[in-house]
Amino acid sequence: MDFPLVFRPLPAPLSKKTIQAFRKDAGWPPGGDAPGGSKPTHGKVQWVTVDCRNKMIGIARLELAPPQFCYLSDLIISSAYRRKGVGDWFMKNIERYCLQFGVPRLLLEPRDGTREFYEKMHFVADPYVGGFLKKDLNPFQRRTLALSR
Known about the structure:
Elements: E1 5-9, H1 16-26, E2 44-52, E3 55-65, E4 69-77, H2 86-100, E5 105-108, H3 115-120, E6 124-125, E7 133-136, H4 141-147
Parallel strand pairs: 4-5
Antiparallel strand pairs: 1-2, 2-3, 3-4, 5-7, 6-7
């Protein structure tokens, strides 16, 4: 990766227009949970982004429910930056962010074509919730990730 990336937790939800633009770029159908989500949540909703040279190139919606889990959805990297390591970098920073809040587990429901990416990031099938993947986070990972920047 030859470009500077910045992980940014947002102080407010993304606009519906921004979310829809990312969804369209990803080939996802319009609609969904935006902004802040229309379905009931089990924790604090936090949008995070990855920026490159002051341009937003990736988004993710985190539903933080410490101390149990973080539900991850709407993780989208702009098509121009896919398959360049940005998604891996973003996921590692999301994990580190969750660990700061004492969240030991990530849960998600992979979209078509994304399962392989998440399995590469060490997500496994959740035995309790069909169709979902989970990843138990290592509390010592925070230090490891900080050293690997």
